[in-house]
């Protein structure tokens, strides 16, 4: 103890000396605990200053790669950015697996989500004594990308199509991860993926075009709340481009994101994204230019080349020597990194506030209970014609391809145990339940040889061959996942068949891996035979030129990849009908529970969008057959995205939706189906009736294309915010209170239940197109039968602001606003009006310098990068492309058009009233050699006066950045 007190006295002396400006003169050992950066009593910035001053330039540069090496002379351990923790700690072994992110958001319960985040943060800390490979305290979660399009392959990772709901849930999860004290971090969450990343196909080369209102009102608002609340410690830049510029060099990383907080942020790139700048994106000619630009834009840590930091550090050193970077640029990024490491307690005695957490927290009883609660709250009751809740005294059958299995996704942890729907129902009933997966068992016989496709019987399986065997070794269970894709599970050992780059082997517990090599298609030919096509994801990669099929490639009949004309033709013999087996299981039972849905590695996932939102055809057929055999059929849909349910939605008496909800899925479903829990999850996305209700997945302009519940005018299958209950609720009138509105809610049923009270607003009149409804507040409230509670929902006048493109600022317009409270966006129970005294947007003044991107409407226009460093311009995609600038005051007359143009030669016309209205001036442009070289052109105007809509009409290939009419 004397030694400890002595060290404390030394630390205090050094701290006082540092504060006095004399810290650099205090001698100390290399790893001396007296170094000020190791003093937890000093402010974070003082500790960072001290540590930064002790590092060499090479050491500072070494901090800018994902894998930061140890610095032994200072006693500093290695550090890694990027432990995945989307709905539990991933890729480190068995940990608590909570519902997928879309499921967490479906709870509409921020307090629960904060608890989940805290549990995940604890489990991340639980590994800190062992520090396994891949572990770190910089967590890559949550995902704040808006679920604008349900076909996005990563829909499971996001929270909602609404920015307010996304912001509140991500803030809750992030607060749990951080511990709630920005100066003492449990973990350091990085919010993904900045910005407008909602398509996977060609994600590294497609540009998400964001007009200013969409950028400010929609996409940025999903990220801002967590950063503003210090619930995230940085952002990850996404692969895609925004307005023609890769997000890896998006200047908003500095210019916008860092303005949302006073804390230092650690911004990282997505994996391999720096290399894309000179690779697929061809945005820069050299890594030196690219990484200098990324650092200046606001990137602090480069995720590239796996553990090899050499290319990154070499590029940064080259940029320093060539003058593209200064040492101060490196210092800035290194400071951001060190600030996070200091706040994590890395340099505190004992690891700081959270340093004592150990592996006992991982999959603890408390976390198991929390996982069950989260899975229960996440489920959404879509339909109930009195079939639910079920009676525990009755008999049941549980059928369907997901009835007795749990699947994990790419960012899941490993399940410590699995309670399947069948397990949960049997535990609830205290007896066994009849069951069937409802899938066909088939044998494939080569019509040319008469031999069967045969798999190995051992646990490790064996390469598929054609043999004369016709027993279990030659039989496969066929799971249909839609779009023609099936998986084959060997009856010989219960393992899935997959390609291992050499052979097809039955050795996988479930479809998995980056390329998901367990996918096949059975292609029926005109003669009734089938070709077996390998459909692993890599067949879509650019280097794989042709579809590939299976056929014998060796004398012993081993199957391999062959061209279509060499493929074996097989008969498909049905050994056992899945539908017949399921029908037999449900006949005579009091209830039939059918569990259908998706396989997360197959039905869309990272790098692969969905083209089909329906259930697989064989799954729909299974439900229909079961319903006919037993009208008391309840359907559970287990997937990660809105589904076009077709006739199924009309015909079955009850529908319950859940995401893939982790280890406690079965217990949660049983609690809900049998009434021990009352469903209260709510949809966080619009469920459309058909893919035809949606525009292109690459259309990011939700305002013009009427996307999401905010602007969609059609009739959805299920609206945003929707979800049923086993009880009923009555709403009183809305009352204005000091900080918003209050409404009484009464449980008028016989069961306790939760209601999610949702407040929406609508601006009746505006200069600009406004959302039909917009969520501004919500609260999940628990009510006993007959109980009434008053729910207060905050709403300030400033919450009604929108982005004024005429002056590039937030404004609240004077006028009347509808304030609505209800059970969903389409189920409004109480409403009132609010008169707000704000401001009136004046007519446009185009005599001031106007950015072309600040249009009111457009046609055949693309948003592009004005320069590689900053700015947005517009580019004409066709002759006659136009921009509208509404309600412009030209006064007594503007006489001259001045515009900055680049790109192809052509004309810029000024017309009044419409794109074909009166022509008042034409500028002729000779073109420039580079799209980034702008020339100022002028043209006289005649008759450009009064108050009117002004249209600029552009020739194809013309780029316009700014203009004036004077």
From TrEMBL:
Q: Tell me, what is one Gene Ontology molecular-function annotation carried by this entry?
A: hydrolase activity
Q: Which InterPro entries does the UniProt entry name for this protein?
A: Actin-crosslinking, BXL, CBM6, Cellulose-bd_IV, Fn3-like, Galactose-bd-like_sf, GH, Glyco_hydro_3_C
Q: Name one Pfam family in it.
A: Fn3-like
- Point out the signal peptide segment: 1-30
Task: Report if keyword Signal is assigned.
Answer: yes
The answer, when asked if Hydrolase is one of the entry's keywords, is: yes
List the keywords (alphabetical). Answer: Hydrolase, Signal
Chain ranges of the CBM6 domain = 848-966
Q: Which family does it belong to?
A: Belongs to the glycosyl hydrolase 3 family.
> Which PANTHER family does the protein's record reference?
BETA-D-XYLOSIDASE 5-RELATED, SUGAR HYDROLASE-RELATED
Name of the protein in question:
Glycoside hydrolase family 3 C-terminal domain-containing protein
Species in which this protein is naturally found: Streptomyces cynarae
Q: What is the lineage of its organism?
A: Bacteria, Bacillati, Actinomycetota, Actinomycetes, Kitasatosporales
